[in-house]
Write a structure and sequence with these properties.
about 250 residues, alpha/beta, TIM Barrel, eight-stranded parallel beta barrel, binds the ligand O=c1ccn([C@@H]2O[C@H](COP(=O)(O)O)[C@@H](O)[C@H]2O)c(=O)[nH]1
Length: about 250
């Protein structure tokens, strides 16, 4: 997509199933990440997370964009307002179209991050990225969540509160598990983006994910985009695994 075409409506649903899937490039170096990308030619979106960014830095984001891919920079910023703002400005200047921040950083930090991301993108002549507020990580199961964090409301209520906080601070999206999507979508209609990791095609290994759905279930529940990592990246044939996920959505 040409930079000039980018807008904050980047999260609107499309009819092309390949547009729904964001492949998590959880790899320890740029070479491995780029090899994975090359193995899945139909890819449109990739996610650069903590593992790859810590190893390969901004250069790998630039290279992915140079290859025509849309980048979700998933560094889950959680800090004081000035630091969140600076990080989001830099991420936006890199050309990331989706950027994660932790909702529990609070409204002042979220608003500062949103403003700085918009400014950073404009400085580069880019459309504004969509900031996604992480609610409750998909690796938490409700029992452990209550026991270890001593948070009283039900997990899905708490996730809804965090998403509402982010929306009130001016953000246009959130990350949640597919199990919370229907509830959050009722309160936060499109174009608010609800991006869901915790996606597992039927029969695949859930590994450390605790709140999961299949690709088709997540989209039916109201997800805007699906983040899928190991079910594709760990498959013997990643292109075939990606195609199977697309077929579920088509
Ligand atoms: O709540 C969250 C937020 C982010 N993630 C990230 O998504 C992918 C999921 O990978 P799988 O291999 O499909 O489990 C991974 O990069 C996480 O950092 C998440 O899982 N849950």
């Amino acid at each position: 997509m040409a930079d000039a075409e980018r807008t904050t409506t980047a999260m609107e649903p499309t009819l092309d199933p390949a547009e729904w899937i964001i492949l998590a490039l959880d790899r320890g170096d740029a070479e491995a990440a780029l090899a994975l990308v090359a193995a899945v030619p139909e890819l449109r979106w990739v996610k650069v997370g903590l593992e790859l960014f810590t190893a390969a830095g901004p250069a790998v984001v630039r290279e992915l964009r140079r290859r025509g891919l849309r980048v979700f920079l998933d560094l889950k910023f959680h800090d004081i307002p000035a630091t969140m703002a600076g990080a989001c400005r830099s991420a936006a200047r890199l050309g990331a179209e989706l950027i994660t921040v932790h909702a529990c950083a609070g409204s002042e930090a979220l608003a500062a991050a949103q403003a700085a991301a918009e400014e950073g993108a404009a400085e580069e002549g880019l459309g504004a990225p969509t900031l996604l507020a992480v609610t409750v990580l998909t690796s938490w199961d409700p029992d452990r969540f209550h026991r270890e964090l001593a948070i009283e409301p039900p997990l899905e209520t708490y996730a809804g509160q965090l998403a509402a906080l982010a929306a009130a601070a001016g953000l246009n999206g959130a990350v949640c598990s597919p199990l919370e999507v229907a509830r959050l979508r009722a309160a936060l209609p499109r174009p608010f983006a609800l991006v869901t990791p915790g996606i597992r095609p039927a029969g695949s290994d859930t590994a450390d994910q605790r709140r999961v759905m299949t690709p088709a279930e997540a989209v039916a529940a109201g997800a805007s985009r699906l983040v899928i990592g190991r079910p594709i990246s760990g498959a013997a044939d990643p292109a075939a695994a990606f195609a199977a996920c697309c077929a579920e959505l088509g």
